[in-house]
Write a structure and sequence with these properties.
Distance between the termini: 44 Å
Largest sheet: 11 strands, mixed
CATH superfamily of the largest domain: GAF domain
Strand content: 25-35%
Structural class: alpha+beta
Radius of gyration: 19 Å
Strand order of the largest sheet: 2-1-5-4-3-9-10-11-6-7-8
CATH class of the largest domain: Alpha Beta
Order of helices and strands: EEHEEEHHHEEHEHEHEEH
Shape: globular
Number of strands: 11
CATH architecture of the largest domain: 2-Layer Sandwich
Number of helices: 8
Helix content: 25-40%
CATH topology of the largest domain: Beta-Lactamase
């Protein structure tokens, strides 16, 4: 079990608290630390910036609140975390006409999934995500509800044909991490993060830099149907708070789509 030191700023950013927490990975450590402070909701939509030394800045896109954590190595002397890290609250994306128009258009377009067979529906939502959050490639890994496996069943972009059919386990890589912890997660430089599952990227010969994953989980049944993944944001290496909001909307609607098929086929998915 790893041990982590978590720097938690106050709501107004005037002071900070350092909490020590244990977990099998940094996400669990951060979740434990924040839950103990009544801040569990801050884990639902996060953007992560992993530093060269392994330290991680985590931004809650809803509030703009930032946290920092690092793994503790008891064999090495530790510098006071408050002396080496300065946390500044990030302003949430300001509401503007163009953003509201995009969201209104999205809600209109997302209704087009109704009545589509499953594969067509999956392709529809993936294409919609890539339209509103332009990336070089994207995929959907569908959960095998009888096992802990996930299989890529829809892909777009370079090497797409090579990705379809690949399986990963829940908890493996960013896709499995998103499914396991039910979190929307974005990382600007995946090579700095040990959770990056390099095998797929290396096997298909495709360079991955930035990544964002959105879990597709039904609020009615708590079933995670899969994970929507976008790779290499066009025009920027960073996924921003507005991108995350767009993906949350698409994820919610995709979960409702899956739930309708699930209940309509007597919980079997057999059409």
């Amino acid at each position: 079990m790893a041990k982590f030191e978590v720097l938690i700023p106050s709501a107004d950013g005037t002071k900070s608290t350092v909490v020590t927490a244990e977990g099998q990975d940094w996400f669990v450590g951060l979740e434990t630390a924040l839950s103990g402070r009544g801040l569990a909701d801050c884990m639902k939509n996060i953007i992560c910036d992993v530093k060269e030394d392994g330290g991680i800045y985590v931004t809650d896109t809803a509030s703009g609140r930032r946290f920092f954590l690092r793994e503790i190595d008891d064999s090495q002397p530790q510098t006071d975390i408050r002396k080496v890290v300065k946390l500044e609250k990030i302003a949430p994306v300001a509401a503007d006409v163009s953003k509201n128009d995009r969201i209104a258009d999205l809600f209109f377009e997302v209704s087009g999934a109704q009545g589509k067979p499953m594969q067509e529906g999956i392709d529809f939502f993936l294409d919609l995500a890539l339209k509103y959050v332009p990336c070089e490639s994207g995929s959907f890994a569908r959960s095998d509800l009888s096992t802990t496996d996930m299989e890529f069943v829809s892909c777009r972009g370079p090497k797409a044909d090579s990705v379809v059919g690949i399986k990963v386990r829940v908890g493996q890589g960013f896709v499995g991490f998103s499914a396991k912890h039910n979190c929307f997660i974005a990382v600007g430089d995946v090579h700095k993060d040990p959770r990056f599952y390099k095998t797929i990227s290396q096997n298909i010969g495709y360079e991955t830099s930035s990544i964002v994953c959105a879990p597709i989980k039904s609020s009615e049944t708590n079933i995670t149907f899969g994970v929507l993944e976008l790779i290499n944001r066009k025009g920027s290496s960073r996924i921003n708070a507005e991108d995350m909001e767009i993906l949350r909307i698409i994820g919610d609607q995709m979960a409702e789509y899956f739930h309708a098929i699930w209940t309509g086929t007597n919980n079997t998915f057999e059409e």
